[in-house]
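Question:
Write out your own:
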Amino acid sequence: MSEPRTHTPSDFVQAAFDIVDAQGLTSLTMRALGDRMGVDATAIYRHFPNKESLLDAMLDFILGEAANLEPTGATPRDRILSVAANVRAAMRRHPNLAGAFAQATGDFANGLTISRRMIAELRALGLTGEHLVRMYQSFEGYILGSSVFDTGGYPETFTIRQARYRYLNEPEFDEVARTAGDVERVTGEAYVLAISTLVDTCEELAKL
C-alpha cells in the first residue's frame, strides 16, 4: 500500500487518538494505525521514527487543547485556576492517555506555553526568586499528578475510589460514597480547593 499525499502528521495523530480513545493505549501499534489509515506501517515512520515520538505528538496535542484556551478571570488567582481547570479538562477528554504523561520524556511545545503562562501569573502574584520556582513546581506537580491519578481509567476510576471510601468505614466517607458520581464531584471540588490553597501560599510568600 502507498501513502496518500494528503496524509500529514496530524492525520496520523488524529487516527491514533481514535484508536486509543476507543480501545486503550495497548491497542495502538504502528501496524494498527497503518491499517486504520489504509497505508503500510512504514509510511508512518516517515513522520514518526518510533511509537514514542507518536505518543509525544499526541500528548503535546492534549496540552495544546489547554494551551489554546486563554485563561479567564480578572485576577492572577482566577487565571491560575482557569489554567488548572483547562489542563485537567483536556486530559479528561483522553483518559486512556493520562498515564502516558507520567512516563513522557519529551519536551512539549504546548507544555512550554502553559508553563510560561503559569510563571507569568505567579510573578503577577508577586513571587520572585526561589519562591517563584518552588511554587511553580508545586503547581506543575499537583496539576499533572492529580489529573493523571483522577483521569486514568475514567470513568471506572471513581467506582474504584467509591469502593475504597466504603472500605475505610468512616461515616463521612460513607456519605460521599453513595454513588460514583458523588465521589467524582468531591474529587473535582478537592482539586479546585488544593489549587486555591496553593495560591494562598503564593500570596503569603509574596509578603515576605
